[in-house]
Specification:
With 647 residues, the protein is of the alpha+beta class. 32% of the residues lie in helices and 9% in strands. It is built from 15 helices and 12 strands. A 6-stranded antiparallel sheet has the order 1-6-7-5-4-3. Strand 11 and strand 12 form a beta hairpin. The protein is globular.
């Protein structure tokens, strides 16, 4: 493959091959979900934003052929003197997009042609100011789009560029030496790579995936590492105004509308050589992206933006963020992206672009039963919707794959105060903490994706997306502490549920090919039990909220009163003290009653959660409880949840 090893290159195809099928939402989605944020506004020339008047500039073979067909050449006899004085015009150099501009009929003229300057390279790195203290005068490069050209179009491009010479009126001119085809440094011209990553690129939402660029307006990403060895997660944020270079208002508006985005960077398995027996396969990442797109409308699931394929080393901004995380954390297990023994210079990466879902649950300290109630039922209702919509199983729902964020206007994630609890009118007790949950990472998940065939008007077919977990080596690990032991046991409970239907039969049995494609929704209950046990066991001690006692405010006199009014003043003061004392007692009694109601509500919610632990118990639980939808239906029948919480 061509392309620099010091920067990412974006692998895509021009023209893109339209897939034979597309995913559609055939089923009803229960619940409400916020609109998706704008996607990939970094590239103002993104194909999805091109207006109709600029679409004709597309550098496809069809567009080039159409333009060349429209070219008309005029041949007129000229005198010998005119032929000697006329010099041939220089051959134009094609741009990075290889779009050959048609030549207009050249008028008869004896003036010399002015050579056109070659276009500016699109991948010229910029050098923004270093916005983080840990970087040492590093230059932040751009992730430059690298398009993989199909094999059948390369010959057409060569012939088109060869024919794009400017004809002169001289008939005796010696033939010019052919200029070699100029390959752009921002593209990959390897048809094998194009074919290899095609299943991923077919899932892009735009005609060709957007550029993955690190604009100077964006500060270094905050590293949010994912669990295991599947990849890294980076959060892109807009710089503070004091550290942001001057930009136009329109560009700043686009970046602001884009909001905080998340890039999940996954190393792809190589076809051969280094990295060919590890990392994520093309089929696995394509399956995950299909699920991301299909589950996008469901409340409580991650919002998908775009998928990219890039090649090469991490840009400086991403590498600096990785180094900073390595220096400040003790849980960095993945190899250094700059390590050439771990990743070759031609390493391919899949970058999944999503909305920022907030903080991972494993990094959040919860203390209030209102927080636990909202987190657990938020995850349970999301799973119930996905079961109804796509026969979905997550199969890897540890605390790192549940993200939470605050629904408050100030973004605070503190436990609700007594005033907030009294103010929120929740008949079920759900939603008082204002925490919103999002389920992420479908690397090991299973779902039925309903596809619409573009060739006819039928209802389409159903494609099962899943991953063979027996190849992941996750069922033999042994935890080192109590929490990790519970996690590793949960994986074995899940496998036993799929193989035998009984989660307690954890004795290892021979692998059955294709069994993980089957639908076993009770695995969702196994993971819900794991989450609830962690929420109840690892809760922090809740700080007591003191009952405020309003003090009687006494108004001070401006000047001493006359002696003849002493009796009247004493009588008025006595009356005022009695009224103030009465008001204080009423407010104090009201505050105590309010606090007592809050305590009773807490006990009621905690009792419900204890009841859920009994229902989901692997040994003595309710045998009729088969999926998350059953649990949510039970909760609604018991008035633990109401319709407005789910629908």
């Amino acid at each position: 493959m061509t392309g620099s090893s010091s920067q990412f290159g974006h692998a895509t195809s021009t023209p893109p091959r339209k897939p034979s099928t597309r995913t559609v939402a055939q089923r009803k989605v229960y619940g409400k979900k916020k609109n998706i944020a704008p996607r990939a506004v970094f590239d103002p020339k993104s194909p999805i934003r091109l207006s109709d008047e600029h679409k004709e500039r597309d550098g496809t073979v069809e567009a080039i052929q159409a333009k060349l067909a429209a070219v008309s050449l005029e041949e007129k006899p000229v005198s010998v003197k005119q032929a000697k004085t006329t010099k041939p015009a220089p051959k134009p150099i094609s741009s990075n997009h290889r779009a050959v501009q048609p030549s207009s009929p050249r008028p008869q003229s004896t003036q010399k042609s002015t050579p056109r300057s070659s276009p500016q390279r699109l991948d010229t790195p910029t050098k923004p100011q270093s916005p983080m203290a840990f970087t040492k005068s590093k230059t932040y490069q751009k992730m430059v789009e690298v398009r993989v050209w199909p094999k059948e179009t390369e010959q057409d491009d060569v012939s088109s560029e060869t024919n794009d010479t400017t004809c002169t009126s001289s008939t005796n001119q010696t033939p010019r030496k052919k200029t070699s085809v100029r390959t752009s440094s921002g593209f990959i011209h390897d048809p094998k790579a194009n074919t290899y990553v095609r299943p991923i690129l077919n899932e892009a939402l735009s005609p060709s995936p957007h550029k993955v660029s690190k604009n100077s307006q964006l500060g270094p990403p905050d590293p949010l590492p994912s669990e295991g060895s599947y990849g890294e997660v980076y959060k892109l944020r807009l710089r503070e105004e004091s550290n942001r270079p001057a930009v136009s208002k329109s560009k700043l508006a686009k970046l602001t509308a884009y909001g905080d985005g998340v890039f999940k960077v996954v190393p792809l398995r190589a076809q051969r050589g280094l990295g060919s027996k590890k990392f994520t396969t093309i089929i696995e990442i394509a399956s995950e992206v299909k699920m991301l797109k299909y589950l996008d409308p469901i409340p409580g699931f991650a919002r998908f933006r775009e998928i990219h394929v890039v090649q090469g080393r991490f840009p400086d901004a991403f590498q600096s963020a990785w180094d900073y995380y390595k220096e400040t954390r003790d849980d960095c297990l993945n190899p250094d992206p700059a390590n050439k023994k771990a990743f070759p210079d031609t390493q391919l990466w899949a970058i999944v672009e999503m909305d920022d879902a907030g903080c991972e649950l494993e990094k959040f300290s919860w203390s209030s039963v209102f927080q636990i109630y909202d987190i657990f039922w938020g995850v349970a209702m999301a799973l119930a919707r996905a079961e109804e919509y796509a026969l979905f199983e997550h199969r890897d729902l540890h605390l790192g794959n549940v993200c939470i964020r605050s629904g408050r206007s100030n973004g605070s994630m503190d436990p609700p105060s007594s005033m907030e609890i009294a103010r929120r009118n929740s008949p079920s007790g759900f939603g008082i903490s204002a925490l919103e949950t999002t389920i992420i990472d479908y690397s090991l998940s299973r779902a039925d994706l309903r596809l619409a065939d573009l060739s006819d008007d039928s209802d389409g077919v159903v494609e099962s997306a899943s991953s063979d977990l027996d190849k992941k080596q996750i069922f033999d690990a042994i935890g080192q502490d109590e929490d990790e032991i519970l996690l590793r046991d949960t994986y074995r409970y899940m496998r036993a549920t799929v193989y035998t239907g009984n989660p307690l039969e954890t004795e290892k049995t021979p692998n059955v090919p294709g069994i993980w494609a089957d639908y076993a929704p009770r695995t969702n209950l196994v993971w819900l039990l794991f989450i609830l046990k962690n929420l109840m066991k690892n809760r922090k001690e809740e700080a007591a909220q003191p009952i405020s006692e309003p003090e009687a405010s006494q108004r001070q006199a401006l000047a001493p009163c006359s002696p003849n009014r002493a009796m009247e003043e004493q009588s008025a003061k006595s009356k005022t003290d009695k009224e103030t004392l009465s008001c204080t007692l009423v407010k104090k009694r009201h505050s105590k009653d309010q606090q007592a109601r809050i305590e009773r509500l807490k006990q009621r919610l905690e009792g419900r959660l204890e009841r859920v632990l009994d229902l989901l118990d692997l040994e003595n639980g309710d045998e009729d409880m088969c999926c998350a939808a059953d649990l949510v239906a039970y909760a609604m029948d018991s008035q633990w949840l109401v319709e407005q919480d789910f629908f």
